[in-house]
């Protein structure tokens, strides 16, 4: 039998080693350890304590096996937080000493997943109109009741029972949203714009000397593009601009990220009408920028707007 001083030295050495392992694990698997840090620290200390007083009894063997398994669950990079929580409750839920730390970690895991749910809601709201978007919106809205129930669940076991299935549904929605984000090119020619303005069809195409149309994309900075378009259909003129074009996202007129001006008769100098609300959904590939839009203003209603603009050679592939 080791003297008490030797046992204490061995114990504190193991605790120090455990702290070092904890810091290393944070660097390797930070996301889950932020959720399960309290449980991980308690597990590691308990393992060290059992090893320092190990008597080869069945009870200690069983306890040690459960703790080692629980620690490996937290360190598993392929396991989502909600999956880890369910497994930890199976391994440690009957141990009253872990009730407080499991409850704390369950609350953190829930907060993280509900935060992902909120972010998913913003992504869904930003999707361009399409059948795939309708599917994504329907599936996201179907999560609302489960999200509310999860937010009100009590204790680690109650949270875990709802968190794992909710997490799986949220993860499956990721694929649907990613597919809906990719917008097919509008059914309009290159360097062309179409819309229905105040109930009348507006169509214009072509760029260069033969037409008064202007399709321009310039790079005023390294991080964004400036898109401007002026197109004519008979006596009617449409001008729209997206001054800070960055990623495949939506651009709202109300926020100043897009502007739209309509003139009914350029020859009679009728007043320009500016849109005061509406949205442009814009994407790009190597050779062009394309999008759809709908806007409105006093005496102005624009529906089914769509355009395609060829990128200048120097900006292609950028």
Key attributes of the depicted protein:
11 strands, 318 residues, 48% helix, alpha+beta, 2 domains, 6-stranded antiparallel sheet
Summarize the topology.
Elements: H1 4-28, H2 30-52, H3 58-75, H4 81-92, H5 99-125, H6 131-141, H7 144-152, H8 155-181, E1 192-197, E2 200-205, E3 214-218, E4 225-233, E5 236-245, E6 250-252, E7 259-263, E8 272-274, E9 277-284, E10 288-297, E11 300-310
Antiparallel strand pairs: 1-2, 1-11, 3-4, 4-5, 5-7, 6-9, 7-8, 9-10, 10-11
Write up this protein.
- It is built from eight helices and eleven strands.
- The protein is of the alpha+beta class and 318 residues long.
- It folds into two domains: 4-181, no CATH class; 192-315.
- The strands form two sheets. A six-stranded antiparallel beta sheet has the order 2-1-11-10-9-6, with no helix packed on it. It has a five-stranded antiparallel beta sheet with strand order 3-4-5-7-8, with no helix packed on it.
- Helix 2 (30-52) runs antiparallel to helix 5, helix 3 (58-75) packs antiparallel against helix 4 and helix 7 (144-152) runs antiparallel to helix 8.
């Amino acid at each position: 039998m080791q003297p008490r001083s030797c046992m204490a030295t061995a114990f504190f050495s193991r605790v120090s080693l455990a702290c070092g392992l904890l810091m290393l694990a944070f660097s390797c698997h930070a996301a889950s350890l932020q959720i399960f840090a309290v449980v991980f620290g308690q597990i590691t200390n308990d393992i060290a304590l059992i090893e320092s007083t190990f008597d080869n009894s069945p009870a200690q063997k069983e306890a040690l096996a459960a703790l080692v398994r629980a620690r490996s669950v937290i360190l598993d990079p392929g396991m989502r937080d909600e999956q880890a929580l369910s497994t930890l409750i199976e391994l440690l839920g009957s141990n009253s000493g872990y009730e407080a730390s499991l409850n704390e970690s369950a609350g953190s895991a829930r907060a993280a997943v509900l935060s992902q749910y909120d972010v998913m809601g913003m992504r869904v709201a930003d999707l361009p109109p399409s059948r795939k978007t309708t599917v994504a919106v329907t599936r996201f809205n179907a999560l609302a009741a489960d999200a509310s129930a999860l937010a009100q669940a009590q204790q680690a076991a109650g949270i875990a029972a709802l968190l794992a299935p909710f997490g799986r549904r949220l993860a499956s929605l990721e694929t649907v949203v990613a597919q809906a984000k990719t917008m097919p090119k509008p059914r309009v020619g290159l360097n062309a714009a179409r819309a229905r303005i105040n109930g009348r069809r507006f169509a214009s195409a072509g760029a260069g000397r033969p037409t008064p149309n202007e399709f321009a994309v310039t790079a005023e900075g390294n991080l964004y593009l400036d898109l401007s378009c002026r197109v004519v259909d008979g006596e009617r003129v449409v001008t729209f601009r997206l001054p800070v074009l960055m990623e495949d996202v939506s651009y709202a007129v109300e926020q100043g990220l897009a502007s739209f001006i309509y003139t009914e008769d350029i020859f009679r100098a009728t007043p320009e009408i500016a849109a005061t609300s509406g949205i442009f959904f814009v994407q790009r590939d190597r050779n062009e920028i394309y999008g759809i839009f709908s806007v409105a203003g006093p005496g102005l209603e624009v529906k089914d707007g769509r355009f395609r603009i060829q990128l200048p050679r120097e900006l292609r592939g950028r």
